[in-house]
Amino acid sequence: MSHDAMTPGPPDGRSASHDGARKQRGAPRKRHRGLKITLGVLLVLLLAGGGTVYWLYSRLDGNITGVDIDKALGDDRPEKLPTSGQNLLVLGSDSRAGAENKELGGGGNVSGARSDTAMVIHIPEGRTKAVAVSIPRDTLVTRPECTKADGSTLSSANRVMFNSVYALAGPACVVKTVESMSGVRIDHYMEINFAGFKELVDAIGGVTVDVPQDIHDKSSGLNLTAGPHKLDGTESLAYVRTRHGIGDGSDLGRIGLQQQFILALLSEVKSQDLLGNPANSYKIANSITKSLTTDSGLASLTSLAEFGRSMNGVDPSTMETIMLPVAYDKQDPNRVVAAEPQAGELWKAIRKDVTIPESAKKSPATGG
């Protein structure tokens, strides 16, 4: 979620650096942490007993918004992994719907929403490590034909900006686009919005990051010196959204900050004694679930808890973060395209649930 990455932009995605992403009661946050949190809270509620348990459980469970991805996409999809591995698509959205989202998004009369941050999280068989592949929002892709929420058909199109897909056709079309470009079956979907991201960071008491260089971003007002800083929710949102304050000012430069922040956030959540502080656990779970949109398979507290239980072996320190290898587009240097053969090798390794070769991690376009 970068600064401009979540700033308004035309639905056709013309301004890659100045567009936004989208909302819906968000998800793409860092999924493992959310799932572990939810599991911890569920255990607390079960231990509490009585009518209060049911009331609290119902409230948290009712917070979650579900999207039936399987129904929307049908059977014409890539095969599931041949192992017990899982692939999740996580989106950070920039919807300005609601007063808090509008304020955090910079205000203005902005309608709709766009997918700001997009990551394919691959959890190999064994569930002891994970790989996060960031897809730059400025990537030009071929959008497949999709069915929009109102039932109308959005025709396929070539050379459209990746982050425009959500604005035009919603989450199911984003999943279909990712599956089409990668050949990777997406098992689950999660999304989180501006307000949810801020509330989560504030609920856990902030996140400490090691800022790699001085950042002075006039657009977001973020001013940080190089070195460790503990960031609150508002500062964290500005940090993962900044693009003018680091690198070449493009979408690529901020992806490293986003990945760094995700790992720091995961580590912070894992280090907290959630079961030892039921009140704070509930506060955290409430902030997550009310800003969370998932596929229908995860759209309940029990489903999230079960999935979270399967993720207990994943340690943030072992998570690998990769940017999809891209090259600057020859027609428009402000856009990027998947770099081959690197991108193909990366997706192939994920499809087969095998180790990603080092050659598949090198991106010709680095963002400075």
Distance between the termini: 18 Å
Tally of helical runs:
12
Placed side by side, the strands forming the largest sheet appear as 1-14-9-2-3-4-15
Strand content: 15-25%
Helical amount: 25-40%
Based on CA atoms alone, the radius of gyration comes out at: 19 Å
Structural class: alpha+beta
How many β-strands, per DSSP?
Answer: 17
Largest sheet: 7 strands, mixed
Give the oligomer, counting copies of the same chain as homo and different chains as hetero: single chain
Low-confidence stretches: 1-52, 96-112
* C-alpha geometry: globular
Instruction: Provide the succession of SSEs.
Output: HHEHEHEEEEEEHHEHEEEEHHHEHEEEH
What is the average of the pLDDT values?
Answer: 77
